[in-house]
TrEMBL record, chain A:
Residues spanning the signal sequence: none
Subcellular location per the Swiss-Prot or TrEMBL entry: Cell membrane
Membrane topology of the entry: Multi-pass membrane protein
Name assigned to this protein: Probable alginate O-acetylase AlgI
UniProtKB/TrEMBL annotation, chain C:
Top-level taxon of origin: Bacteria
Regions that span the bilayer: 25-43
Keywords, sorted A to Z: Membrane, Transmembrane, Transmembrane helix
Protein name: Uncharacterized protein
Length: 515, 94, 358
C-alpha cells in the first residue's frame, strides 16, 4: 500500500490509529504490538502476499541469531555473527542480484544460463540493513533481544518498513515499551498530521510535477536521441528536484505517521541540497543509510587499514590513499550497487566515491590556508553551485535506464555550442509558465535554498530523534515555525488538501521503493 | 609525531586524569591539524568541525599507538565524547 | 529516548493550554480541508475542455461529440448512444442514405457512441444532446449481453461535478474513486479553461479539425481499418475459426447474475438507475426510446436481461447477423458487410418508429 494512496489515507490509517488508541485506552497493552504487527503485515500484503512470508521468515531467523549472539562470547559469537550477516546478504543477493549476475555472466561468457525473473521483494534492501545493524549491536553488547514481539514491532512497524529510515533497536524500544506510550495522543496526532501533510505535499505536488518535466528527456535518451544543452540540464535539474522531494517527502510521511503513534524516528534528510560540499551533502542526504555505512562498514574497514598504515609509518598522502580514498570509493561502489542491480548504480556510487575523495583531499590540502582566509560569500555561492552540479550529474546516471543513456545526457549538458542559438528560457506567456520548466525550477530551487526544511518548520515540537544535534544546522534564510495556532491550522488544512487532491493526478510509486 | 616508547612507558606509571587529558589534547591537535583547542569531557564531534568519522579513526589509532593499547570496533563506535576517550584510556592503560 | 519524547510532548501541552485546544486545532484543519474541497468543486470551467480531456485515450472521439452537439447546427432526429458495437454497427451516413431510399430523406442521424458499456456516462451525453438539440425525436441505446455492474470508466471525467456528486450510492464501485478525484479534476479543468494552450486543448471550435456530422467511427479506432479488415477476411475458413474461438471466450466471460433476481436492483444498481433516469428524461421530453442489441458472433438472440429491458423500452435485436462470419470484423464488431446489412434494417425500424412530420 502506498502512503500516497486514497486507501491508505482514508481507510488504513484511520482504522489503524483508532485500533491502536482504543487498545491503549482499554489498557490492553500486550495486544498493541500484536495489532501493530498485524496491521503492518496487511499494509505489506496489499502489495504482494507471498513475500509476507519472506519478511516473517527473515525477521524470525534474525531474532534467533540475535538470541544466539547474546549467549555466545568470543570465537563462537564472531562465527555466528558472520553466519547471520552472510545469510542476510545471501537472501538479498538472491532476490535482488541473481538476475543481474546471470545476465552479465551470459553476456560476458556467451553462455545461456536461464533463471526466471525474480520479483524484488518490497523493502528487502531496508529490512536487511536494519537487521544486520541489530545483529552487530547485539554482538557489540549494545542491545539485548527482549522478546520476539518486540523485535517484530521493531522490524515490521509500517511507517518505516518499506524504505526507511533505517532505525536502531536501541532507539525504538524505549519508545514502544516505555511508560509514556499513548500519552499526549492529541498533541502527537496533531504534530504527526502536520509532518505527514508536508511530506505528502512534497511527493504529490512537487516531486510528481518534477517527474513530468524530467521523464520525457530520459525517455528521449533511452530512445537513442541526441540531447541538446537545454533538455540535458532540464533532465539533470528536474530529476534532482524530483528525487529529493520524492524521497524526503516519503521520509517526512514516515516520520509523521510514526509520530501519530507517539513514536519518533531519526531524520533521513536535513536540507542536503543546501550543502556547500559533497561531504556535507552525504551527512544530510539519506542520513540513516550514511550512518549505517559509517558504523557498520566504514569503521570496521578503515580501523585495520589505519593500524596497518601507522605500523608501516606511511606519510600523510600514503595514509590518505590507503585510509580515505580507497575505502571511500570501494564503499560507495557497494552502496551504489545496493540501490539496484544495474551498472548505472555502480557508476553512480563510483562518482560519489570519487567526489568524496576529492573533497577530502582538498580539505586536507587546503586546511591551513582556509584557516587564515575564510571563504567569502562569493566563494560560498561557488561551493554550493559546484556541489549541486556534481550531485545533479550523478543523479542523471541514477535515473537513466542505462549508462549509455546517461552519457547521452551528460554530452548534452556539455553541448555549449547550443548556447549561440539558445531560445529564451523565460516563459513567453502564461501557458508556457506551465508547460516549460523554468517557473517550476525557480520555485523548487527557492524552496530548497531559502526555506526551512520539515524539521525546521516543526522545530518547536522535537520532530525527529536527535533533534538537538540538527537544530542549528543549515538554518534557512526565510525562517518560520509551525505552531498550533489558527493560521497554521488553516495552512495545514490547505497543504493536506493539496497533497490529497494531487494523489488523483495519477499515483506514482516512491523512487526508493525500487531499492 | 610519536615520542619515543621509552618515554611513554615512564609516563604511564604516573597516569592521572589531568595528565591524560593533557596528552590526549596534544594528540588530538596533532591528528586534527589544529593549533589550540580546549577539549572538555562533554566535547563531541558536533563541536569541532574537523572531528568526523575519518579523523575519529585516525585519532583512535594514534591514541592506541601512543599508549600501546588496542580498542575494539564496538569501543571505537561508542566513543562519542572526549570524556569517554579519557575514561577508556585510563581504564585500558592502567 | 523516552524522556526525550516525553519532554517535547509536555512542552506542546503547555505551550497551548490543554489537549482541548489541540482538538480544536484538528477541527480547524478538518474544516479547512472540507472548505477547500467545496471550493475546488465549485470552480467553474468550460465544458468543451472537459470533452477534450480524453486526448490520447480510446475515448478521444468525445471532443468530436461535443463539436457535433454544440458546434454543428445540423439537426438530429435520431441519436445513437452505445458502446463500440453500436459505434461501428450503426453507421450514420449509411443509415441516412437508406432512409432516403425509403422516402425519409429528412431524417438526420447522429451516433455519439464510444467504447465500453457503462450507462452513467450516457445520461451525461444525453442531457447535453437534448440541451443542444431539442429536436431529437428518437434515442437508440446500444445494449450488450448483460447490463454492466459498474459505471463507465470515463464517467468521472466527463460528467459535471454535480452529476458525480449525485451519482447513486447503491453498489457503485467507481463512485469513491470518482468523488476523490473530483477536486483535482476541477482544479485542473479550471486552470485548463484559462490556459487551454498549456494543456493542448482548443479554446474555440476548429472547423478544419471537425470530421463532419456523420464520421465513420472506424476512423476513430484505427486509420488502417480497411487493410486490417481485408486481411482478416481474405481467408474465410481462417476468419470463421478465429471468430468461433473468440466467441467461445466471450461466452465464458459473461458472468451470470450472482445475486437472486430480487436483488438485481442492487447488483446492477448503477446501470438500472441510469436507465430509469434516461427513460424518465426522454418521456418528459416526449422523445421515443429504443434499445438495439448487436449480438457477438454465434452469440445470443437477445440480451440475457431482455425481460427487464423490455419493461423500459422496445428492443431491436439484430439476431439475423450472428451466424454469418462475413458479417463480422471480429467476434463483437460488424464488418463492412455487416454494416451494409444493418443500415437498411435500422432505417426500416427508424421509419416505423417516427411518423412522417405532418
Amino acid at each position: 500500500m502506498l502512503f500516497n494512496s486514497l486507501e491508505f489515507v482514508f481507510l488504513f490509517l484511520p482504522f489503524t490509529l483508532a485500533g491502536y488508541y482504543l487498545l491503549i485506552r482499554a489498557g490492553l497493552r500486550d495486544w498493541i504490538f500484536l495489532f501493530l504487527v498485524s496491521a503492518s503485515l496487511v499494509f505489506y500484503a496489499v502489495w504482494n502476499p507471498p513475500y509476507v512470508l519472506l519478511l516473517i521468515a527473515s525477521m524470525l531467523a534474525n531474532y534467533a541469531v540475535g538470541l544466539g549472539l547474546e549467549r555466545l562470547r568470543g570465537r563462537g559469537q564472531a562465527s555466528l555473527m558472520a553466519l547471520g550477516i552472510v545469510l542476510n546478504v545471501a537472501v538479498l543477493f538472491y532476490f535482488k542480484y541473481a538476475n543481474f549476475f546471470v545476465d552479465n555472466l551470459n553476456a560476458v561468457s556467451g553462455a545461456n544460463y536461464t533463471l526466471e525473473r525474480i520479483l524484488l521483494p518490497l523493502a528487502i534492501s531496508f529490512y536487511t540493513l536494519q537487521q544486520i545493524a541489530f545483529l552487530v549491536d547485539v554482538a557489540r553488547g549494545e542491545v539485548r533481544p527482549t522478546g520476539v514481539w518486540r523485535y517484530a514491532t521493531f522490524v515490521i512497524f509500517f511507517p518505516q518498513l518499506i524504505a526507511g529510515p533505517i532505525v536502531h533497536y536501541k532507539e525504538m524500544m524505549p519508545q514502544f515499551f516505555g511508560r509514556r506510550l499513548g500519552r499526549f495522543a492529541t498533541a502527537n496526532l496533531t504534530v504527526g498530521l502536520a509532518i505527514f501533510a508536508i511530506g505528502l505535499f512534497k511527493k504529490t505536488v512537487i516531486a510528481d510535477s518534477a517527474a513530468a518535466f524530467a521523464t520525457p528527456v530520459y525517455d528521449m535518451a533511452a530512445g537513442g536521441e541526441t540531447i541538446g544543452l537545454l533538455a540535458a540540464w532540464r533532465a539533470a535539474i528536474c530529476y534532482t528536484i524530483q528525487l529529493y522531494f520524492d524521497f524526503s517527502g516519503y521520509s517526512d510521511m514516515a516520520l509523521g505517521l510514526a509520530r501519530m503513534f507517539g513514536i519518533k524516528l531519526p531524520p533521513n534528510f536535513h536540507s542536503p541540497l543546501r550543502a556547500a560540499s559533497i561531504i556535507e551533502y552525504w551527512r544530510r542526504w539519506h542520513i540513516t543509510l550514511q550512518q549505517f555505512i559509517v558504523a557498520y562498514m566504514h569503521q570496521p574497514l578503515v580501523v585495520p587499514l589505519t593500524r596497518f598504515g601507522a605500523e608501516r609509518g606511511y606519510g600523510k598522502w600514503q595514509m590518505f590513499a590507503l585510509t580515505t580514498a580507497a575505502p571511500t570509493i570501494m564503499l560507495f561502489l557497494v552502496i551504489g550497487f545496493w540501490h539496484g542491480a544495474a551498472w548505472t548504480f555502480v557508476v553512480f556510487g563510483g562518482m560519489h566515491g570519487i567526489y568524496l575523495s576529492v573533497n577530502e583531499f582538498w580539505r586536507t590540502y587546503r586546511r591551513k590556508r582556509r584557516k587564515k582566509n575564510k571563504p567569502g560569500p562569493r566563494d560560498m555561492v561557488f561551493y554550493h553551485l559546484l556541489t549541486l552540479v556534481c550531485v545533479a550529474a550523478a543523479n542523471v546516471v541514477f535515473r537513466a535506464e542505462g549508462v549509455d543513456d546517461a552519457i547521452r545526457i551528460w554530452a548534452g549538458m556539455m553541448r555549449f555550442s547550443d548556447l549561440a542559438a539558445l531560445p529564451s528560457v523565460l516563459p513567453a506567456n502564461a501557458a508556457e509558465a506551465l508547460t516549460e520548466p523554468m517557473l517550476f525550477i525557480l520555485v523548487a530551487v527557492s524552496l530548497i535554498a531559502f526555506f526551512p526544511n520539515t524539521q525546521q518548520i516543526m522545530g518547536r515540537y522535537h520532530p525527529i530523534l536527535g533533534w538537538a544535534k540538527w537544530r542549528a544546522v543549515a538554518l534557512p534564510t526565510i525562517a518560520f515555525r509551525w505552531r498550533p495556532s489558527l493560521p497554521w491550522a488553516v495552512i495545514t488544512g490547505v497543504v493536506l488538501f493539496l497533497g490529497v487532491a494531487f494523489i488523483s493526478r495519477g499515483q506514482t510509486e516512491f523512487i526508493y521503493f525500487n531499492f | 609525531m610519536c615520542p619515543s616508547p621509552l618515554f611513554l612507558r615512564a609516563n604511564l606509571r604516573t597516569m592521572d586524569k589531568a595528565s591524560v587529558t593533557q596528552e590526549l589534547t596534544e594528540i588530538f591537535e596533532d591528528v586534527m591539524d589544529l593549533d589550540e583547542v580546549t577539549l572538555e569531557d562533554g566535547t563531541t564531534a558536533n563541536d569541532i568541525e574537523e572531528w568526523d568519522s575519518l579523523s575519529h579513526v585516525r585519532l583512535i589509532i594514534a591514541i592506541e599507538r601512543h599508549y600501546g593499547i588496542k580498542f575494539s570496533n564496538a569501543e571505537i563506535e561508542s566513543l562519542k565524547q572526549f570524556g569517554d576517550i579519557v575514561a577508556l584510556v585510563l581504564t585500558k592503560a592502567a | 529516548m523516552a524522556s526525550d519524547s516525553g519532554a517535547h510532548a509536555d512542552a506542546l501541552s503547555h505551550s497551548g493550554t490543554l489537549p482541548r485546544r489541540r482538538g480544536r486545532f484538528l477541527g480547524v484543519v478538518a474544516a479547512t480541508f472540507a472548505a477547500c474541497m467545496v471550493l475546488s468543486v465549485a470552480l467553474p470551467h468550460d465544458p468543451y475542455i472537459r470533452y477534450q480531456s480524453f486526448k490520447g485515450t480510446i475515448f478521444d472521439r468525445l471532443s468530436w461529440v461535443y463539436d457535433r452537439l454544440y458546434h454543428d447546427n445540423t439537426p438530429i432526429d435520431v441519436l445513437f448512444i452505445g458502446s463500440s458495437r453500436t459505434a461501428r454497427g450503426a453507421n450514420a451516413a449509411a443509415i441516412e442514405a437508406e432512409l432516403a431510399e425509403i422516402g425519409r430523406p429528412e431524417l438526420r442521424v447522429a451516433n455519439i457512441s464510444e467504447p465500453a458499456s457503462g450507462m452513467d456516462i450516457r445520461l451525461t451525453k444525453l442531457r447535453d444532446a437534448l440541451r443542444a438539440h431539442p429536436e431529437i425525436r428518437l434515442v437508440v441505446l446500444g445494449m450488450v449481453e448483460a447490463l454492466p455492474r459498474d459505471g463507465h470508466q470515463a464517467f468521472g471525467d466527463l460528467a459535471t461535478a454535480g452529476q458525480v456528486l449525485t451519482a447513486p450510492w447503491v453498489i457503485n464501485r467507481t463512485l469513491p474513486e470518482n468523488l476523490a478525484a473530483l477536486p483535482f479534476r476541477q482544479i485542473e479543468l479550471a486552470l485548463a479553461s484559462r490556459l487551454p494552450d498549456a494543456f493542448g486543448y482548443r479554446a474555440a471550435f476548429d472547423p478544419d479539425a471537425y470530421p463532419g456530422p456523420t464520421p465513420d467511427h472506424r476512423d476513430f479506432n484505427d486509420a488502417n481499418w480497411r487493410e486490417i479488415e481485408a486481411a482478416k477476411l481474405s481467408s474465410a475458413p481462417r476468419h470463421a475459426a478465429e471468430l468461433a474461438a473468440e466467441s467461445v471466450m466471450r461466452r465464458r466471460e459473461i458472468t451470470p447474475p450472482v445475486l437472486p433476481d430480487a436483488l438485481a436492483w442492487a447488483e446492477f444498481g448503477v446501470s438500472r438507475s441510469y436507465l430509469q433516469d434516461m427513460a424518465r428524461l426522454l418521456e418528459d421530453e416526449g422523445v421515443e426510446m429504443a434499445f438495439v442489441f448487436l449480438p457477438f458472433y454465434d452469440g445470443y438472440d437477445e440480451p440475457l436481461d431482455a425481460d427487464y429491458l423490455r419493461s423500459v423500452a422496445p428492443i431491436w435485436s439484430a439476431a439475423f447477423m450472428r451466424e454469418t462470419p462475413m458479417n463480422y470484423f471480429d467476434a463483437a464488431h460488424a464488418s463492412q458487410h455487416g454494416i451494409d446489412l444493418l443500415a437498411p434494417w435500422f432505417a426500416r425500424r427508424i421509419a416505423d418508429t417516427l411518423e412522417p412530420a405532418r
